[in-house]
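Bit of a strange request maybe. I'm writing a small parser for structure token strings and I need a real example to test against, not something I typed by hand. Could someone generate the tokens for this chain?
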Amino acid sequence: MTKIKNLWQSKFFKGSIWTLVTIIAVLVVFQAGRFVGFHQASFSYRMGDNYYRAFEGGPREGGMMKGNPFGDLPGGHGAVGKVIKVNLPNIVISTPDNLEKTVFLGENTSIRRFRDNASSSEIKVGDMVVVIGEPNQDSVIEANLIRLLPPTTIKSD
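Reply from user aminoacidic:
Good idea to test on real output. This should exercise your parser:
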């Protein structure tokens, strides 16, 4: 009996127990990290699988944007199209479905060409733009962001 009592009270036994508890704690934390990482990776994987269906309207024969440089973008608060009139602080764009939309460029409107900042004076008639903003009570889009697109060439069949 005293040998067992001495074993429980020995430094070797106590050190072994603490080492075992530490190893188990490290393994539990490692497994939790794997679990979280797996769920993040599966979310990213599912998002990649569903991207075209959610944002582009699904793959079409001959490529994603054949015949229409804008794909099937959702409506939302904004517009995509060609600038047909510049009368700052407003511009008018023609959308792919032949609608004209007026866009107001406010003080907080961010204008971008690729990764670079641009100014409203760089917007010219004929430019292709993507506008993100909110419509006001006059049905004018108050732009938060205007992205100037590079010129596109569309080949017809």
